[in-house]
Amino acid sequence: MLADHFPLLGLRVRTPRLELRLPDEDQLAALAELAAGGIHEPDTMPFLTPFTDAPPDVVARSVVQHHYRMRGELTQDKWALPLTVLSGGIVVGAQSLEATEFAVTREIGSGSWLGRDYQGTGIGTEMRAAVLHLAFAGMGAEVARSESFDDNPASARVSRKLGYADDGTARHAVLGRRRTGHRFVLTREAWERHRTVDVAIDGLEPCLPLLGADGSAAS
Questions:
Q1: Where's the N-acetyltransferase domain (predicted)?
Q2: Among 68, 71, 112, 188, which is 20 to 30 Å from 2 by CA?
Q3: Residue 218 falls within a domain, yes or no?
Q4: How many domains does the chain have?
Q5: Residue 116 pLDDT > 50, yes or no?
C-alpha cells in the first residue's frame, strides 16, 4: 500500500461530526470544486495568499497543485499537512497544520476554509479543535498560533472560543493593499482548560518521525 511508504496517507483525525485526512483523488477533486464555487464574499479577501482571486477553474487547479506540492515538499524541518475535512462523508472544507523545526520549537500554526454552505454551523470550531488535539495530545506541541484579518471575525471567534490569547498585530500586503492581521497564541495549559470536543486519532505513530515529533505524548 502507498501508505506503507508515506504513512501520512493513513492518518485520520475524527470528531463526533468530522473526519480530517489527506484526501484521495476523488476527495481532492471535490475539494477543488468546493473552492471554485466560492468560499467567501467576492468583495472580501480573508487569506494572506489570495488564491481565490482567480477564475473558478484556476482556483480549482491551484487547490490540487497546493496539495501535491505540500506532500512533495514535506520534511522533518518544515512541513504542512493540508487536511481535507469531511462531514458525513461529504467534503466541506480544508484545515491545515504546519510547523518549522517542530522538534526544536514545539510550535505549530494552522489555517482553514469552509464551503459557503457549511459556514456558521460550528464546523470551523470543531475542525480546529481536531488539529489542536493532533498537535498537543498527539505530537507533543507546546504552543499553537493563528492569525486573522480585521474583516474575518469568524476566525477570531473560533480562536478565542478555543482558548487563544491576543498576541499583537502584523502588517501584510495583500493584492496591493495593506492589511492588519490580528495574532493569537495558545499554550498547552490554555488548550487543556478549553477542551470541549472529543477527538480520536488513528494512524499517527508511523507519521511522527516525518513530522519531527518524538511521540512522547499520548494520542
A1: 18-189
A2: 112
A3: no
A4: 1
A5: yes
The boundaries of the domain holding residue 33 are 2-211
CATH number at residue 23: 3.40.630.30
Residue 41 in any domain: the answer is yes
Which band of pLDDT confidence, cut at 50, 70 and 90, is reported for residue 57?
confident
* This prediction's pTM: 0.89
The answer to whether residue 89 is domain-embedded is yes
Give the model's pLDDT for residue 9. Answer: 97
Residue 219 falls inside a structural domain: no
